[in-house]
Specification:
- It contains ten helices and ten strands.
- It has about 240 residues and is an alpha/beta fold.
- The protein has a domain of about 140 residues: 3-Layer(aba) Sandwich (Rossmann fold), CATH 3.40.50.
- Strands 6-7-8-3-9-10 form a six-stranded mixed beta sheet, sandwiched between helices.
- β4 and β5 form a beta hairpin.
- It starts with 7 loop residues before the first strand and ends in a 5-residue tail after the last helix.
- The relative contact order is 0.18.
Length: about 240
């Protein structure tokens, strides 16, 4: 599978936790600036796929490459330095630090055009209003915006998001998706979105990957699933609403 530099490539990856194998022979390529949504029932390996890219799992077989080089043997912090940003499902912001401190503690020396706190505030104006509020004083939606902003402070070229829409009010979901669209179009970020809200994920990303029992059972156009509710239901067990 030929890919461009700064892309993500998984070749026949089998991975899990200790001796337990969760992913079984997964191959996936994502070019620079592209977007893919990862769908599937609970427990099929979606989060494990992200964790394997980050270096948080045991790799039993296969290879993972990023930015034109194998990262299989690299520790997690070195993968982050190469340009892999991560927004965990639990958000994991620092509750005793304020918004600005949460951003600056994660920052790297900004390159020209790189991410700064002011640039994050421009993307999420609500965070600018709350910049002196502690992490534990923020709403769920504000915490999610902060989690995304903190990941951006590492100046990634690939952003991994684990169920960022979970538990958010509809208006907050719309704002967050709008920000992600801006990141895709203006910043040129490659995005891997793991999401339970199937229809929102399919509308956001032109490409969808569906996992079942650790294997890819669909890799193709999102529109094909949006327009075929029966097939979508058979793959992930919901109508996508």
């Amino acid at each position: 599978m030929p890919v461009k530099p700064d892309s993500l490539l998984l070749r026949d990856v089998s991975a899990g936790y200790g001796e337990t194998v969760v992913l079984d022979g997964v191959s996936l390529a994502l070019e620079q600036g592209a977007t893919v949504s990862i769908l599937g029932r609970n427990g099929v390996g979606k989060t494990t796929l992200l964790a394997s890219v980050l270096g948080h799992t045991t790799l039993h077989a296969g290879d993972i490459a990023f930015a034109g080089r194998s990262i299989t043997g690299l520790r997690a912090f070195r993968r982050a330095r190469l340009g892999i940003g991560y927004v965990p499902q639990e958000r994991e912001i620092f509750p005793s630090l304020d918004v600005e401190e949460n951003l600056t503690v994660a920052s790297r020396r900004p390159r020209r055009g790189g991410w700064t706190a002011d640039r994050v505030y421009a993307l999420f104006p609500r965070l600018a209003e709350r910049r002196h509020s502690m992490g534990n004083q923020l709403s769920g939606g504000e915490q999610q915006m902060l989690a995304v902003g903190r990941a951006l402070m590492l100046n990634p070229s690939l952003l991994l998001l684990d169920e960022p829409l979970e538990g958010l009010a509809p208006v907050t979901v719309d704002r967050l998706l709008d920000a992600l669209r801006r990141l895709r179009s203006e910043a040129g970020l490659a995005i891997v979105l793991v999401e339970q809200h199937a229809r929102l994920a399919l509308e956001f990303s032109p490409r969808a990957v569906v996992l079942n029992r650790g294997r890819i059972v669909y890799d193709g156009a999102s529109g094909a699933l949006l327009n075929d509710s029966e097939r979508l239901a058979s793959l992930i067990g919901v109508s996508g609403a």
